[in-house]
Design a protein that fits this description.
mainly alpha
Length: 96
């Protein structure tokens, strides 16, 4: 297993996002629609995994993960990207 630096991962996601926009445009979708598309790609990848060895389908599965991740990015572009809220933020300071 090799690790890919985060900046390279982000570049791949940006490239996929550019591809998606060129292919599909900026048609609005609800968060539920994005989840349906994401689930479809996840189920496709799981189907491949259940019937093939990792060596045969590794790149295909990672391609599905790239698509799912980028669909999440597209959803947040359309509907907002709320930052993670920590327990400290929610409760107003460090807890003892």
């Amino acid at each position: 297993m090799s690790l890919t630096p985060r900046d390279e991962v982000i570049a791949v996601i940006n490239g996929e996002r550019d591809y998606q926009q060129a292919k599909w445009g900026d048609a609005p979708h609800s968060p539920l629609e994005f989840l349906v598309y994401m689930r479809d790609y996840i189920e496709e990848a799981m189907h491949l995994c259940s019937r093939n060895s990792d060596a045969l389908i590794g790149d295909q599965v990672l391609g599905s993960i790239r698509k799912v991740t980028t669909l999440g990015v597209a959803c947040m572009e359309q509907h907002g990207a709320p930052a993670r809220r920590t327990l400290e933020t929610i409760l107003g300071g460090p807890q003892r």
